[in-house]
């Protein structure tokens, strides 16, 4: 199954979920707090798929929500966000517990995807030097500290927009295999544009990291938190125009495309993360940018 078909089937799953929600809206609400959900039902919107993000509404009266046993935060209006990483298994379980102790269980089926895998007849690479490892540790510590900030934002509720429109030059999830040894999978989506092309915030959020010097791999790295544990990272920028703590609005210019760090040409690498799960920006937006098609080969990304 090619990615186009995978996306089509994911879109189908999305519409089935939407149908379930529509049915729930038509059924007698019986005084439920949320107009869209009958008591006892979850409403879910988004692809139940590897790399997919789903926004849900919990059954009326829910006080505690878990996904596979892990607590999930509920917004005051009963909405929540969950995501499924690139290698997520075929099943997940949502459980809502109401104030009166009754529970609603919703077993979810997570659709698998087919990833672009490229076998290369070359070794994985050289062993990193102690100097590199020491520098890298500082960078990873800075990224971990940014992720721990978890500021409040309602950006997660928005329909995400393209930060840059351009040719997709690297797909989420693709992976190179070096003489049988797996490299790490491509954690984001690459959009090719010349250095200096403006980058816009895909949704509202709060800046949690704005590198003041290029990181070894990411180059000039900008991270924006959209709330509920969802964040965007923008890599390889030639310039960053916002500061840590800034509240940014969807569409606001945040920096310029570049090729700082490890990059083979100027492009924006945009990655999305929910908690520790890497999500596919293409699934969140629902397809390639206007006028662009998806690459089938040679799209391993960097
Ligand atoms: Zn990339």
Commentary on this structure:
The protein is an alpha+beta fold and about 300 residues long. The protein has 2 domains: about 5-110, Sandwich (Immunoglobulin-like); about 115-285, Glucose Permease (Domain IIA) (Distorted Sandwich). The chain is built from 3 helices and 21 strands. Strands 9, 12, 14, 15, 16, 18, 20 and 21 form an 8-stranded antiparallel sheet that branches. A 4-stranded antiparallel sheet has the order 4-3-6-7, with no helix packed on it. A 3-stranded antiparallel sheet has the order 1-2-5. It binds zinc ion.
Oligomer: single chain
> What is the structural class?
alpha+beta
Count the helices. How many? 3
Radius of gyration: 20 Å
In CATH's first tier, which class of the largest domain applies? Mainly Beta
User: Mean of the pLDDT scores?
Assistant: 88
Q: Which stretches of 5+ consecutive residues score pLDDT under 50?
A: 1-36
Domain module count: 2
Q: Note the beta-strand portion.
A: 25-35%
CATH fold node name of the largest domain: Glucose Permease (Domain IIA)
Count of DSSP strands: 21
Amino- and carboxy-terminal Cα gap: 24 Å
The CATH homologous superfamily of the largest domain is called Glucose Permease (Domain IIA)
Inertia-based shape: globular
Helical fraction equals: 10-25%
Instruction: Name the bound molecules.
Output: zinc ion
Main β-sheet description: 8 strands, antiparallel
Give the H and E element order.
Answer: HEEEEEEEEHEEEEEEEEEEEEEH
């Amino acid at each position: 199954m090619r990615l186009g078909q995978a996306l089509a089937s994911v879109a189908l799953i999305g519409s089935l979920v939407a149908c379930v929600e529509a049915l729930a809206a038509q059924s007698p609400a019986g005084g439920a707090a949320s107009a869209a959900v009958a008591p006892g039902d979850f409403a879910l919107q988004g692809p139940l798929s590897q790399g997919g993000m789903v926004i849900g509404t919990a059954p009326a009266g829910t006080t505690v929500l878990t996904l596979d046993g892990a607590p999930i935060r509920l917004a005051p209006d009963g909405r929540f966000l969950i995501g499924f990483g690139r290698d997520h298994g075929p099943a997940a379980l949502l459980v809502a517990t109401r104030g009166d102790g009754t529970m609603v269980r919703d077993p979810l089926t997570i659709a698998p995807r087919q990833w672009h895998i490229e076998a290369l007849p070359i070794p994985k690479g050289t062993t990193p030097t102690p100097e590199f490892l020491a520098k890298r540790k500082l960078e990873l510590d800075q990224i971990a500290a940014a992720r721990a900030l978890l500021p409040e934002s309602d950006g997660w509720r928005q329909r995400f927009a393209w930060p840059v429109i351009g040719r997709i030059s690297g797909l989420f999830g693709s992976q190179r295999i070096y003489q049988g040894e797996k490299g790490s999978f491509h954690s984001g989506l690459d959009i090719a544009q010349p250095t200096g092309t403006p980058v816009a915030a895909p949704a509202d959020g709060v800046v949690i990291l704005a590198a003041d010097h290029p990181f070894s791999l990411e180059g000039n790295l900008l991270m924006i938190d959209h709330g509920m544990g969802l964040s965007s990272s923008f890599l390889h920028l030639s310039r960053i125009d916002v500061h840590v703590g800034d509240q940014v609005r969807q569409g606001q210019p945040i920096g310029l495309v570049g090729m700082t760090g490890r990059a083979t040409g100027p492009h924006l690498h945009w990655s999305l993360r929910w908690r520790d799960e890497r999500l596919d920006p293409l699934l969140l937006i629902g397809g390639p940018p206007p006028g662009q098609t998806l690459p089938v080969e040679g799209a391993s990304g960097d």
